[in-house]
Request: fold
Amino acid sequence: MAENAVDVIVVGGGLAGLACAREVTNRGLTVRVLEASDRVGGRVRTDQVEGFLLDRGFQVLLEAYPECRRLLDYAALDLCRFYPGALIRMNGRFHRVADPRRHPLHAIGSATSPVGSTADKLRLLGLARRLRKTTPEAILQGPIRSAALDLEKEGFSPGIIERFFRPFFGGILLDPELEVPARLLRFYLQMFASGPVSVPGGGMEEIPRQLAAGLPSNAVRTGSVVARLIDGGVQLASGEELTAPVVVVATQASEASRLLGDVLPDPGVRGTTTLYFSGERGADGAPPSSDDGILILNAEGAGPVNHLAFMDRVAEGYAPAGRSLVAANVLGTPENHAGDDLVGRVRQQMREWFGAPAEGWHHLETYRIPEAHPRQTPSSFDPPLRPLRVGPGLLVAGDHRTNASLNGALQSGRIAGAQAVEEVTG
Reply:
C-alpha cells in the first residue's frame, strides 16, 4: 500500500470524525484523520488563559448519553458534576428548582417556588418519569411537531414555559422560541432525568483527547486542509493527494456542504456567544446557592445573558486557587451583537444580579460561535438519523445527520465507521 493510501480517510477531527476513526481501527482497518486546525476536537475545545480553563462555548456532558457511555472512560475523565437543578432569576430574586429524587431536602422549596404552578411541577415529574421508562430510540421517533407546541399539548402553563423551559431547554438547544423538534426536547429531558450533568476536570477538550488517544499514533494529521474531494480520495490545499477506497466527511454542516455540493444542502445554523469573567472567590457576589455548582437561568426577559455558571464551583481546576470563573452565555447569531458593547451590557446585567462585586470582574475572553448547532426543525429532523452514505465510497457524519449533541456527533461517527468498513470489506 502506498504511503499516502489507507483504507478510510476521515475529513475532520471533531467528535464525529474521531468516533468514526475509532470504529474503523477497532475493526482492523487503517484510517487517516485529516484535521484542518492545530489539534483535534472540532467545536469541543478548551483554552488556557491566565491560569483558567475556558471551553469554547458553554458545553456540558450529560452522563446518560448512550454513545458517551459506550465510547468514553468516565473515570479517566475525572468528571465533576453540576447540582441537579437550576437557580432561576425572576422578579429580582433567585429561586432554586431541584430534582426531588436526588435532593429530597430541597424539594419543598422547589415545590413552593413561583417558577410554575403545583400542577406544572407534577406534570413535569410525570413526563420525566414516563420518559425514563422509554428508550432513547423510541423518544426520537416521537411526535413531529415543535417543542413549544408539544409543551402546550402536555398541558404546561405559559408561566412555566416562559420561566423554565425557554431559558433552560432554549439555552441547551440554542432556540429560546423552542421551534426545535419536540422529540429532541424530550430526548434531552430524558437524559437530564436519567443521569448527572458534568464537565471533565481538565476541560471539555479532554473528551476528544481521550478518543484520539485510542488511535494509532500516525492516524491523525493536523494542519491538513482538504480543498476538494477527488475520485478515490482527497486533495489537500497544499496540492497533496491522499487515496482510500472510502472517504468519510465528518465536518460541521457548512464545510460538509462545501465539499459535497448539492448532495448535502446546508441546513443552516444556530449561534451563541460565551463570555468569561474572573473574580475573587468569596468576594464575587455570587448567591450562596451557586456554591454547589448550579446552573443559573434568566427568567426575567431582560438582559443579554440567558444562562451562566460559576465554573470553579463545578470543577475546581477551571480556575486558579482563590479565583472564580464565570461563564455567561448569550443566545443568537453572534453577528447580531456585532458593534454592540456586549461586554458592557453583560456587566450591567451582572451588577443587577450580583451587586457591586460584579463591577470588579475581569473580562477574560469572548467566544463568538456562529455555527454552534445545526438548525433543527420538526421537518428536517425526520428521520432522526438521516442517511450517511451519499455515494459510492463516500459517507458523511456529524451532528447535522443526527441531533445537535455530543451523543449525536458520536453516534453518527460510529455508524459511519461501521458502514465504511462494510464498503471496504464488501
